[in-house]
């Protein structure tokens, strides 16, 4: 998968005269800044192309406007700052400027200014010992208001707890973050189940049952757009995951859930359903995950599926959705992503 970062359009070259004593310091500063800006834009372009060719890091932006776009509303500096924050992962919680430049494709001079600014604002912390950065507490202050305002989390919680007790599965709520699933709530039955994701952790869309359930729950237009984007970002992974998507799409109308038998992590089996929400709310899916060594062959379909479907229905009713609400989009999930 790759990311496309917009570049400033280059201005036509103009003939410049040698500065004379009549040129003020301010004018010279402007000229120097313009030259540095042009150099930085060229470096950024090369960095992005290197990232694309070398598959450096994770995709950090969902195809913003390109260099020739006339969209002047896109704030490229803001996008770059967020790109730096997204470069940190649980596996790599500390990164230096050089590593950030490699992962984002941005020039090192730009990275230095961004990390300096983000540190002053509290979104990064600098380790003097290791000369690297880690995410700061400011990042949590951005996410908490969203989680606290998600009414679905409060509504679903008692049903998730009941489902976890009855099945001994980890029960999770997920929503889509561009081309991934992000968990927004989780309920754990006990320490004996190692399938215990954290809030904020991510999963791929097509390789997981909860990701496929989210896609099935999307409108047909949005589903097609996401599938096309997945295909363009990583054709090999898309081709490998398509059989899983096609199988769940074919079976969903008859059974009402998606199923993973170690599709993403070999020892983890999962089952998921889309949870209908009012039109202006985010798409949500509910899943149950469990370690496969504890399972009989059909236990998850025979025992967990009815309880999961019942929990999802009760959550939908509590959110004001009725059983007669239109589900045509869910039943018409297309396994293909166009030509």
Automatic annotation (TrEMBL):
Biased composition regions of type Polar residues, renumbered to the chain: 14-25
PROSITE patterns: HTH_ICLR, ICLR_ED
UniProt domain IclR-ED: residue ranges: 138-321
The organism's place on the tree of life at top rank: Bacteria
Gene3D superfamilies with a match to the protein in the record: 3.30.450.40, Winged helix-like DNA-binding domain superfamily/Winged helix DNA-binding domain (1.10.10.10)
Span of domain HTH iclR-type: 75-137
Pfam families: HTH_IclR (PF09339), IclR_C (PF01614)
Biased composition (Low complexity): 28-45
InterPro entries tied to this protein: GAF-like_dom_sf, HTH_MetabolicPath_Reg, Tscrpt_reg_IclR_C, Tscrpt_reg_IclR_N, WH-like_DNA-bd_sf, WH_DNA-bd_sf
Region of interest called Disordered, as start-end residue ranges on this chain: 1-68
Keywords: DNA-binding, Transcription, Transcription regulation
Protein name, UniProt field: IclR family transcriptional regulator
UniProt source species: Paraburkholderia unamae
């Amino acid at each position: 998968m790759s990311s496309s970062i917009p570049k400033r359009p280059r201005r036509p070259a103009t003939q410049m005269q040698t500065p004379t004593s009549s040129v003020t310091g301010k004018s010279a500063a402007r000229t120097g800044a313009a030259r540095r800006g042009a150099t930085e834009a060229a470096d950024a372009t090369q960095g992005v192309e290197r990232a694309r060719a070398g598959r450096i890091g994770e995709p950090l932006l969902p195809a913003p406007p390109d260099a020739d776009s006339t969209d002047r509303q896109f704030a490229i500096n803001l996008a770059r700052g967020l790109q730096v924050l997204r470069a940190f992962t649980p596996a790599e919680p500390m990164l230096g400027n050089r590593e950030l430049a490699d992962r984002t494709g941005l020039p090192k001079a730009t990275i230095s200014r961004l990390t300096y600014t983000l540190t002053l604002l509290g979104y990064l912390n600098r380790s003097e010992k290791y000369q690297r950065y880690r995410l700061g507490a400011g990042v949590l202050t951005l996410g908490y208001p969203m989680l606290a305002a998600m009414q679905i989390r409060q509504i679903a919680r008692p049903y998730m707890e009941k489902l976890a007790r009855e099945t001994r599965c980890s029960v999770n709520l997920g929503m889509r973050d561009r081309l991934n699933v992000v968990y927004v709530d989780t309920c754990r039955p006990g320490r004996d189940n190692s399938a215990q994701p954290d809030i904020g952790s991510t999963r791929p869309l097509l390789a997981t049952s909860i990701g496929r359930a989210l896609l099935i729950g999307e409108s047909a237009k949005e589903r097609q757009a996401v599938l096309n984007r997945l295909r363009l970002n990583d054709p090999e992974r898309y081709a490998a995951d398509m059989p899983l998507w096609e199988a769940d799409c074919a079976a969903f109308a008859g059974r009402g859930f998606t199923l993973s038998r170690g599709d993403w992590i070999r020892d983890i089996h999962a089952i998921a359903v889309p949870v209908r929400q009012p039109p202006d709310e985010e798409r949500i899916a509910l899943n149950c995950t469990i370690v496969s060594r504890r399972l009989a062959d059909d236990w998850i379909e025979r025992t967990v599926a009815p309880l999961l479907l019942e929990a999802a229905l009760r959550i939908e009713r509590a959110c004001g959705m009725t059983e007669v609400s239109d589900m045509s989009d869910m039943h018409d999930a297309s396994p293909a992503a166009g030509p």
